[in-house]
């Protein structure tokens, strides 16, 4: 997925929607639990209560999940609301942007070509893109996120570099990437509720090769999309707008957890890759010096207390996030999608590791409780719920090795960070606000600032508007982006708008 620090100009071009008025979150409706075996029902009940508690702690309006064990779907359900304004519950069939979980599909496409002898992972990327001036960066470096600096030397997650795999796939197959997704995954696996990018339904001529019936179904599916939200300040839930409508090798697929269960089954049953090929993708990539790194070939690979975890997350910055976690030795899978960034965003506050994630930690401790009993260290961490009394005295954990401690620390740090970054607005007279109204010509389009009923709005993206909040008579902020917008004056007249984001300024002269 495009990283949350994507440049402001790119965001404007992509037409991301910005914040609307704050909304309160009503009490979520109860959702029925899927049938499960007697042995699994107790664990499911425990885990689902933990999921609901974690969702509320992170201010996630809606979340859908599927739990799979030994190839059986133990539970597929929703929590909270897909759309809190219209009180539409989240379900197992709610459609979400899955962001970087898309990369696992791309990895499989690449590894299929390797398996068929049509592609060599040691082939230079320069054969496919003139952006690479020599042969040092190989396809394996893109898959393992080791292409920066000295190729193969270190792991550095970079969706933009991963994106070059699109050119590799399209050149090798002669087909557009979306067509490959449809023909390899969506159609044969009967992932009928998924959509290969929201804009695919906009133009029947461009995407005619996907099939008329498919395009009609994609348009219908999009009506079941979750509405995106973000967490601001001390728990204000704000509408941030939808992600870009395009489709990439690194992000863009929309899916449901029920469809993801079909994808997961195809992986485990080796419908998509042979066992030896999958094992290669799920083996930590080794650096030039022989050290195992964080990823295999398109998948994160983590050893947690002797248990191999295969996973990927999705993160749009605001609005949507995802978690796909497998415990292969136990034949266990968790897929969770949310209409907020918080599902994935909070674990960054401790580190980019799935064991820092609240939902992943609760899943592991509930379904593989013996893992919680392994390891040493401090005994000050909380003991996971569900550990038998006879075993609780043996539970020890340290900050570096216990997901209970690290994930709860991540939650606390994340909420504290949101609180610290909240900015205080001041009231301004209507005539002061009116002086800022008008058009401003940015590099890619003219944006409009308007004043209405004592509030100032900006039409980013086109077709929507977001409220601006004043810190001074000329400096404003948005609740869903760390932007500072400064209206520059010459004398008493506003002549320019400067938008500052992550150290970069984009300016636009006023064009009344």
From TrEMBL:
<keyword id="KW-0732">Signal</keyword>
<feature type="domain" description="Beta-lactamase-related">
    <location>
        <begin position="49"/>
        <end position="343"/>
    </location>
</feature>
<protein>
    <submittedName>
        <fullName>CubicO group peptidase (Beta-lactamase class C family)</fullName>
    </submittedName>
</protein>
<dbReference type="Pfam" id="PF00144">
    <property type="entry name" value="Beta-lactamase"/>
</dbReference>
<feature type="signal peptide">
    <location>
        <begin position="1"/>
        <end position="24"/>
    </location>
</feature>
<dbReference type="InterPro" id="IPR050491">
    <property type="entry name" value="AmpC-like"/>
</dbReference>
<dbReference type="InterPro" id="IPR001466">
    <property type="entry name" value="Beta-lactam-related"/>
</dbReference>
<dbReference type="InterPro" id="IPR012338">
    <property type="entry name" value="Beta-lactam/transpept-like"/>
</dbReference>
């Amino acid at each position: 997925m495009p990283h949350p620090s994507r440049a402001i100009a790119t965001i404007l071009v992509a037409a991301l929607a910005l914040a609307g008025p704050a909304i309160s979150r009503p009490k979520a409706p109860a959702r029925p639990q899927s049938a499960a075996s007697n042995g699994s029902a107790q664990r499911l009940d425990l885990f689902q209560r933990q999921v609901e508690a974690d969702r509320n702690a992170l201010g996630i309006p809606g979340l859908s999940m599927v739990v799979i064990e030994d190839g059986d779907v133990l539970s597929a359900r929703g929590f909270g609301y897909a759309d809190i304004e219209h009180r539409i519950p989240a379900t197992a069939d709610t459609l979400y942007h899955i962001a970087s979980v898309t990369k696992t599909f791309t990895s499989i496409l690449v590894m299929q070509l390797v398996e068929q002898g049509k592609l060599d992972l040691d082939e230079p990327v320069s054969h496919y893109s003139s952006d690479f001036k020599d042969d040092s960066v190989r396809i394996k470096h893109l898959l393992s996120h080791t292409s920066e600096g000295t190729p193969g030397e270190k792991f550095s997650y970079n969706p933009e570099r991963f994106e070059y795999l699109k050119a590799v796939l399209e050149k090798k197959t002669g087909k557009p990437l979306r067509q490959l997704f449809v023909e390899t995954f969506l159609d044969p696996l009967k992932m009928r509720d998924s959509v290969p990018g929201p804009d695919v339904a906009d133009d029947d001529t461009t995407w005619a090769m996907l099939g008329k019936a498919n395009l009609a179904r994609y348009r219908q599916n999009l009506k079941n999309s979750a509405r995106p939200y973000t967490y601001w300040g001390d728990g204000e839930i704000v509408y941030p707008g939808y992600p870009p409508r395009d489709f990439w090798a690194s992000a863009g697929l929309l899916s449901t957890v029920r469809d993801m269960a079909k994808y997961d089954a195809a992986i485990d049953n080796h419908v998509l890759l042979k066992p030896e090929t999958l094992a290669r993708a799920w083996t930590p990539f080794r650096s030039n010096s022989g050290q195992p790194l964080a990823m295999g070939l398109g998948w994160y690979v983590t050893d947690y207390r002797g248990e191999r975890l295969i996973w990927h997350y999705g993160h749009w910055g605001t609005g949507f996030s995802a978690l796909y976690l497998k415990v292969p030795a136990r034949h266990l899978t968790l897929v969770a999608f949310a209409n907020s960034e918080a599902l994935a965003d909070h674990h960054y506050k401790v580190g980019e590791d799935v064991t820092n994630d609240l939902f992943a930690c609760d899943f592991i401790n509930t379904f593989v409780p013996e893992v919680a009993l392994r390891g040493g260290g401090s005994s000050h961490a909380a003991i996971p719920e569900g550990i038998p009394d006879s075993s609780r005295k043996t539970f020890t954990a340290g900050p570096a090795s216990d997901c209970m401690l690290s994930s709860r620390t991540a939650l606390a740090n994340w909420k504290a960070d949101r609180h610290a970054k909240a900015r205080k607005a001041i009231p301004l007279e209507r005539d002061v606000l009116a002086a800022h109204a008008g058009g401003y010509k940015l590099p890619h389009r003219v944006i409009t600032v308007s004043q209405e009923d004592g509030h100032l709005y900006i039409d980013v993206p086109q077709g929507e508007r977001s409220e601006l909040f004043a810190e001074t008579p000329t400096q404003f902020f948005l609740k869903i982006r760390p932007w500072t917008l400064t209206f520059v004056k010459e004398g008493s007249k506003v002549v320019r708008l400067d938008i500052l984001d992550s150290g970069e300024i984009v300016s636009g002269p006023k064009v009344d």
